[in-house]
RNA sequence: GCCCCCGUAGCUCAGUGGAUAGAGCAUCCCCCUCCUAAGGGGAGGGUCACACGUUCGAUUCGUGUCGGGGGCGCCA
């Protein structure tokens, strides 16, 4: 039992005497000012109104009824009716033993009661390298999943692979066109196809392997394809030209499918495989792994999309207009009705997403968390609408929106544009600032807030850089323990009552807070709380380090101090691991 | 026009229905004969955008105003 739990139970006993049935309103908080005790309770003020009593008198009565305790030093009444509780130092010191005993699981709890939670994140189209925007979703989702797990949830990490649909067709087409280029067949490359060099590389690999097997004459390719509009009009944002541009692209896709025939799936599959394995590798290097890579295509293949749409139709939630099939999303709180099947018979992305979410519910998760880029926020009402229409509980779904990250280098915004292909990839970022700094910086802000990512700062190996600041604290303790040379497990019998300085008490209090931080972080879906906690903890350690020498002559004092810093090292390592950041022994 | 995020120290940002609102950077002063100075101590710096409301109590919750950023396809 933690001191906080202990004090809460004492207060409950006292309150039960005075106001039976009100015990559950008790909450303890940690006051900011040291003079206000280690914990503070506002229950007297909260009960004053219903009991029609003066809050200070109520507080007096509660304090008078507090059972005696080994850990409680004193209880004071202050301000408008606060009950301020002061603990004996021994109450704090026990945390050092707790940490040594629990090791890597210190901070874990059963707060989530084993609830089955799915966290779906990244889910980028496998049509090219991950960029820095995906990186934030990856870092956030991975840390969030870790935090939820530590707080006692059964977590499934999932990547939704958009392997069906037009974007993949565009990638397959792009690859084929580059392949043709390499055989001297010059079909003008569409502006809205994938421009990146990785497409040329895939084309080269196919050419190396299969020679000219997939070559077709240019006039046959362009036969019947809507004409390409003027590029300048498209770039200028002319609506008609843009539509024409898309029609041109769709025409080329149709041509590639027609001419390649049974070979088309080869191009499609090759490109998908290449991009997906590249993405998977990228993420693994970034410390991000998934339990499930869920294929969108499989939803079509197993008829799940059709059956989800059928269910909606059967329940009268669909209607036809302009040849398309519309979902009455407005009946369930969305602002517009949405198309699920286009006039050309193709299902929309929304249709497969309905099937996907229905499938998530079928798999029996108690809670589903979708991590999406903030640009999708308008999408939430329609997905929730679909859930309600399918008689599924929309409260089980939480969409965590991740705002964009903007890179800064030399104080200047790094310009990015997907269109021109001039985006910075996650790989480039990782190689520039390192995995640890990237992981840490991504979660240093609340996820729903714009992130300014300062590349120079993330790279700097100085105290300005919070990653190094925290890692350095860990390395410092390792260094002290190495200097001492003893076995950490031998610190079991350290006399912790030797730890009485203000530095030591501050540190112990901080260590004791860690499990609460993990729980709060899970509850708020906010891994950044861990990052801020670690900065504070590292700060406490550095202050202590500078103020006191640990390897002192007095053997008992030395062992007590080493036990404390070893516990600090453990918590630093535990917290860093939740964020996917290394805890180095040397720097 | 509609929607989302934000407005807290010079800058970048935490924070909370509670008491005297914090950190880092920047500025100024100071600390290695010492377990890693990638560190530490101290000083200055605030109308928590503004108004009204709810409350015993609001920087926190609600409404409105102003200001900044972003998003709004039969795209995914």
Task: Please summarize what this structure is.
The chain has 587 residues and is an alpha/beta fold. The protein contains 22 helices and 15 strands. 51% of the residues lie in helices and 12% in strands.
Protein described:
By secondary structure, this protein is an alpha/beta fold. Among the domains are: 85 residues, Gyrase A, domain 2 (2-Layer Sandwich), CATH 3.30.1360.70; 134 residues, Isoleucyl-tRNA Synthetase, Domain 1 (Orthogonal Bundle), CATH 1.10.730.10; 111 residues, no CATH class. Helices cover 51% and strands 12% of the residues. The strands form 4 sheets. The chain has a 5-stranded parallel sheet. The protein has a 4-stranded antiparallel sheet with strand order 1-2-4-3. The protein starts with a helix and ends in a 9-residue tail after the last helix. The chain binds one RNA strand of 76 nucleotides through helix 2, strand 10, helix 14, helix 19 and helix 21.
List keywords for this structure.
Isoleucyl-tRNA Synthetase, Domain 1; 587 residues; RNA-binding; alpha/beta; 22 helices; 5-stranded parallel beta sheet
The amount of helix comes to: 40-55%
CATH superfamily of the domain at 93-110 and 463-578, called what? Isoleucyl-tRNA Synthetase, Domain 1
Measured by DSSP, the beta-strand proportion falls in 5-15%
Report the CATH architecture of the domain at 93-110 and 463-578. Orthogonal Bundle
| Number of helical regions | 22
Q: Would you count the extended β strands for me? A: 15
> Which of globular, elongated, flat, extended, rod-shaped describes the shape?
globular
Q: What is the average per-residue confidence, as pLDDT, rounded to a whole number?
A: 90
The rounded distance between the terminal residues' Cα atoms is 37 Å
